[in-house]
Amino acid sequence: MTLLIISTRSSFAIPNAVSLSKGESAPFTGVLLSDSYSKEVYRELNEVNKYKLLTKSLQESVLVYEKNEIIYKQEITQLTDQNVNLAMAVQEAKTNSFWTKALWFSVGFVLSGATVYMIERH
User: Fold this and answer.
1) Alpha-carbon separation of residue 113 from 91, 96, 100, 102, 106 (angstroms)
2) How many CB atoms lie within 10 A of CB 7?
3) Looking at per-residue confidence, does 16 or 114 come out higher?
4) DSSP string, 17-35
């Protein structure tokens, strides 16, 4: 296994980095990079991490969008069903209303006629 040792100065802090001076031996085997190249690698790693965070954020946004889309479609289906049921109820109420009125009119007509008949008979 090869280990990467990144040469840094105190202003360029990397976790678990070992700072070496010329002539010192490294505490473990690996590849030693120049100070300028190690800074370039560090910047690139930071960019990669930013892209990873952006990708993760985008994936989470897509999941939220998909969940919202499912909820939205369910609400549309529910509203459509409610509208159909309401239209049927209104139509049924109109139909029942006519027959109900006709029934009450007929009952009133018969009772009025019976009342007039009873009055004339006595």
Assistant:
1) 33, 25, 20, 16, 10
2) 19
3) 114
4) -----TTPPPSS-SEE--H
pTM listed for this prediction: 0.46
Burial 81-120 (b: 16+ CB within 10 A, else e): eeeeeeeeeeeeeeeeeeeeeeeeeeeeeeeeeeeeeeee
Assign residue 81 a region (left: φ > 0; alpha: ψ between -120 and 50; beta: otherwise).
Answer: alpha
**pLDDT tens digit string along 68-107?**
999 999 999 999 999 999 999 888 877 767 778 888 899 9
Please give the single-letter amino acid code of residue 57: S
Residues 6+ apart with CB under 8 A from 68: none
Cα 99 to Cα 35, 48, 85, 89: the distances in Å are 95, 76, 21, 15
> Hey, what are 118's tokens?
């009873």
Domain boundaries, the chain: 34-91
Tokens of 18: 């070992």
